[in-house]
Amino acid sequence: MTKANILSIQIRPKTGRRERNLEKVGELIDQNSHLNPDLILMPEFFNTGVSVPEFKKLAETEESSVTLDYFKEKAKKYNTYILTGSIIEKDGEKLYNTSWLLNRNGEIAGKYRKIHLYDCCGGTENQYCSYGDSIKVVETDFGKIGMSVCFDIKFPNHFVNLVKQGAEIIVEPAAWCLPNDTDNWITMNKARALDNMVYFCSSNLCGKIDSYLTSCGHSMIVAPNGQVLSDAGEQEGIAAAQIDIDYLRYLRLQFNLNRL
Q: What is the Cα–Cα distance from 221 to 234, expressed in whole angstroms?
């Protein structure tokens, strides 16, 4: 039987306090290590908070990353895959909103640069970040993971294309801050799981994260039939559940998902 324990971390980061934010996430991982996670997720911007000046100040390269180095050790210590939320990556003169997946040995297994930058309703992400240009599916020892970040969730074809490349689990780090949009966030988590017959695993920020933005939390693990297996609510904490890849594969055979 192919099962995996998922642990999704939900925090309210301190703006610009990277080391403190890493410690906070690390403490939640340590406190919940008894769950024997096979995959741990962090939110978008969890290490910096949502601040353009701090993005530019604390941008990291793949070759020299305080954040990646920290979680490489956690991955090895707990023998788990870790999805490093999203980190502002510097590549030459460009910045990207980038998510890395580390394997159980702390090695980089996959990397995804956010394609759908938040450029509406006052959002300016496209003014300081460059667009990613390719989707990413990573094979793990328990299933194939498709990668997404935050605003990607508004674009259903992104997930259809991930499934066409074999994705069975979707990871979605986020800093979902649209006003009065909690119900829509929850609905989209369930819809993306149900529409694509995947396990949909999100990790969102929560609470007031700067002078005018509040993130709704509700990091979730949703089954391919749309059932919410775990919901972190609105406060700092975790969502945790065991997923069953054999069950997912059985459902897909019944519905002939290869027709996508």
A: 15
Q: What is the CATH number of the domain that holds 232?
A: 3.60.110.10
Q: Which of 255, 254, 210 lies closest to 51 in space, CA to CA?
A: 210
The C-alpha atoms of residue 58 and residue 47 are separated, in whole angstroms, by 9
Strands 214-216 and 199-204: unpaired
Domain holding 63, by residue range, is: 3-259
Planar angle of CA 181, 176, 210, nearest 5 degrees: 105
Q: How long, in residues, is the chain?
A: 260
Alpha-carbon distance of 170 to 56, in angstroms, equals: 28
3-state secondary structure 155-209: CHHHHHHHHHCCCCEEEEEECCCCCCCHHHHHHHHHHHHHHHCCEEEEEECEEEC
DSSP 142: S
184: its two tokens: 């829509």
Which pLDDT tens digits describe the chain residue by residue (260 residues)?
699 999 999 999 999 999 999 999 999 999 999 999 999 999 999 999 999 999 999 999 999 999 999 999 999 999 999 999 999 999 999 999 999 999 999 999 999 999 999 988 777 898 999 999 999 999 999 999 999 999 999 999 999 999 999 999 999 999 998 767 899 999 999 999 999 999 999 999 999 987 678 999 999 999 999 999 999 999 999 999 999 999 999 999 988 766 55
CB 185 within 8 A of CB 204: yes
Q: What is the 3-state secondary structure (H, E, C) of 26-44?
A: HHHHHHCHHHCCCEEECCE
> What's the domain count of the chain?
1
What does DSSP say about strands 169-174 and 144-147: parallel, antiparallel, or unpaired? Answer: parallel
